[in-house]
Amino acid sequence: METSAKPSNNNIGRKIGRIREMRGIKQEALAAELGVSQQTVSRMEQSETIEDEVLDKVAKVLGVPADAIKNFSEDAVINIIASTVNNHDQAASVFFYPTFNPIDKLMELVEENKKLYERLLMAEKEKNELLKRK
């Protein structure tokens, strides 16, 4: 009888751990979002199976569908990365195509900043008026 050293592809906990790592999320951060301890997350990542309700919560925190966790395959991820890498240049290319106009967003932030400044100014004026009355 021969045992395989390769971990089971159906180990849901290991899949959660790999996706968490790929997303750059620490166990502590995931635990805080789920309202559990880091040790609970560690045990979860070592589990073969996880209740669907817990899986849904984890998936929401990780920003992926629960089915993506269930069907996660590290080999598939490696194949996708390998097929999209352009080896003709030494620089990594990152393309960002926002679905919004970044200038419009910037202007929204500027307007919001103005409103906050005006509210702060009004609060200071009210405070000064109160101090003058005393």
Automatic annotation (TrEMBL):
Annotated coiled-coil positions are: 106-134
Which Pfam families does its entry note? HTH_3
Where does the record place the HTH cro/C1-type domain?
Answer: 16-69
Q: Does the keyword Transmembrane helix apply?
A: no
Superkingdom classification of source: Bacteria
Per UniProt, which keywords does this protein have?
Coiled coil, DNA-binding
Signal peptide feature range: none
InterPro entries from the entry?
Answer: Cro/C1-type_HTH, Lambda_DNA-bd_dom_sf
Which protein, by its recorded name, is this?
Helix-turn-helix transcriptional regulator
The taxonomic lineage of its organism, from the top, reads: Bacteria, Pseudomonadati, Bacteroidota, Sphingobacteriia, Sphingobacteriales
